[in-house]
Write a structure and sequence with these properties.
2 domains; globular; two-stranded antiparallel ribbon; Farnesyl Diphosphate Synthase
């Protein structure tokens, strides 16, 4: 199976799961509506798809893991709500719609984010999921590490600090993106391995694949946003130049591919579906850049 077929099939199921579960997420109507507004505002649903792609690769019934895999979207959404606040990025629009604090007020937006974070852990530990207690504990620890002060939140702090300076080094930019973007994507792959009851070595391989994918994702985003003469201190084309940025993207894609080869060699499983997620970068890499 390839990415297009998989996503066409699985994204509507993720959306349905999020919609249904969020309907019983809070006891106060305004809070529930703000939570739903933020989560259901669209997006690729990349992170739960990656977890479920691992499940599919192991031949397990994907539909039984939808709720636990979708928990990561709650963490991702809470981070977006808080990132958009006036105290941080001060954005008025997200995906063409008013940001949550513009639609519901800063107070309700903050609380909606606060409520989404523990809800994610509630979903991970739901006893109706086909997981044993050890797997639930592993998922909770992995998510906490990826989302907290050693992961996504650390990345946001580094990002804020970097915005106060006129020049940012490559190492500083990579540190921001490894934490802010890579950590949750890496978690998604590791979580799929935990759900599939894979051993620690396989979890680490898939985690590292996720880190390479996350950094490639950010580099591609910077290339796509590139405009000659436009200077953005944290953007890879500003730091490396456009041609070297494309080289950096290729290096991350190559690293991701090598990790999947290792995964396939150790497990004997078909890596086709996971490898097809890397097709996202093909057009950018094949384009002629000047």
């Amino acid at each position: 199976m390839q990415f297009k077929e998989f996503s066409t099939n699985i994204v509507p199921q993720i959306e349905h799961t999020l919609e249904n579960e969020l309907a019983k997420s809070a006891s106060v109507a305004e809070l529930q509506e703000a939570m739903r507004y933020a989560v259901m505002a669209g997006g690729k649903r990349l992170r739960p798809m990656l977890s479920l792609a691992v499940i599919q690769t192991y031949g397990l019934p994907v539909n039984e893991y939808l709720k636990v895999a979708s928990a990561i979207e709650l963490i991702h959404t809470y981070s977006l709500i808080h990132d958009d606040l006036p105290a941080m990025d001060d954005d008025e629009l997200r995906r063409g719609k008013p940001t949550t604090h513009r639609a519901f007020g800063e107070d309700t937006a903050i609380l909606a984010g606060d409520a989404l974070q523990p809800l994610a852990f509630e979903w991970l530990t739901d006893l109706d999921q086909p997981l044993n207690d050890a797997q639930r504990v592993q998922l909770v620890i992995a998510m906490a590490q990826a989302a907290g002060g050693a992961g996504m939140v650390a990345g946001q702090v580094l990002d804020i600090e970097a915005m106060k300076t006129s020049a940012v080094t490559l190492a500083e930019t990579q540190a921001i993106h490894y934490h802010k973007t890579g950590a949750l994507i890496a978690y998604a792959l590791q979580a799929g391995a935990i759900m599939a009851n894979a051993n620690e070595d396989i979890q680490n391989i898939l985690h590292d694949f996720g880190m390479a994918y996350g950094l490639a994702f950010q580099i591609k985003d910077d290339i796509d946003d590139y405009q000659p003469g436009k200077i953005e201190s944290q953007a890879y084309p500003t730091i490396l130049g456009l041609s070297e940025t494309v080289v950096a993207l290729q290096k991350q894609v190559d690293l991701a591919q090598s990790l999947l080869l290792k995964f396939e060699d150790i497990t004997g499983l078909d890596k086709t579906l996971l490898a097809s997620f890397l097709d996202y970068f093909t057009e950018t890499l094949e384009q002629t850049w000047e």
